[in-house]
Amino acid sequence: MRNWKFAMASTIVGSALMLGACGSTDTGQETSSGEAGVEGTVSGDGSSTVAPIMEGIVEEYAGVQPGVQVTVGTSGTGGGFEKFIQGETDFSNASRPIKEEEAASLEEAGIEYTEFQLAYDGLSVVVSQENDWVEDLSVEDLKKLWVEDGSTKKWSDINPEWPDEEVVFYAPGTDSGTFDYFNEVILEEEDLVSSATLSEDDNTLVQGIQADPNAIGFFGYAYYVANQDTLKVVSIDGVEPNNETIESGEYAPLSRPLFTYANNASLTDNEAAYDFMTYTLENAGAMADAVGYVALPQEGYDEGLTELEALK
Fold first, then answer.
1. If exposure means fewest CB atoms within 10 Å of the residue's CB, which of 58, 267, 280, 282 is most exposed?
2. Closest CA to 54 of 246, 276, 205
3. Is pLDDT at 118 greater than 60 in this prediction?
């Protein structure tokens, strides 16, 4: 397996990726699921947080099954579910559980699906390395900073010893599951500060925060890991995100699971989709570790494979 943390630091996932060979199939190759020489197309969309895991899996899968073309977009968890509901994709990546209204829309559309958990993430609050005053924030500090209250937010509002400088905010776009999760557990459904720069592309957020010592933002842990030379992670109530605190849940309330949702009809009718999802579940743990997320215990992937096999 290539060094995915290094690869992410160079070029993390763009707005979409399309990996997979269109040439001739080597019928002697097999996936670990035992399917030789599979051919076809598979499409997915969704969370940019989940994208680093999927980017690595898709690229390595292309070497195993060159006859399968897999395309994955990154329009955000909500945007991905919109396409999934329309029947445009075989799977949808999500950094939050599916919402009741999304599940209802899928039922109305006659689409049955299966949820597969891929990894754990610790939603990371970050500032520039040039910021030499912020080391730790409480959940209440985060809410004071990020909730729109009509005021101009300054660092000195949190601590009078900090600079009397306006805070510059960067946040995932409103279609992002990361936005939804932060909104639920930190903002408690109040409005996000209106001055924030929003983007579905986490790389845009990374670059903005890197360039401004007064900036603050949040995104998935893997994006911090890939850019830790130029970003500083902020501990929350004294707990810094790392593999141990994320897996244990000590990094609360910002630890969360990452998912992909698969269309059951695609899994049963499209051999390529079934084979790709099998490969995904067999390799998600190693890839999560490689890109900077936290793998599930092996039994989590075994349960997913059992659910998948029951659909065949």
1. 282
2. 276
3. yes
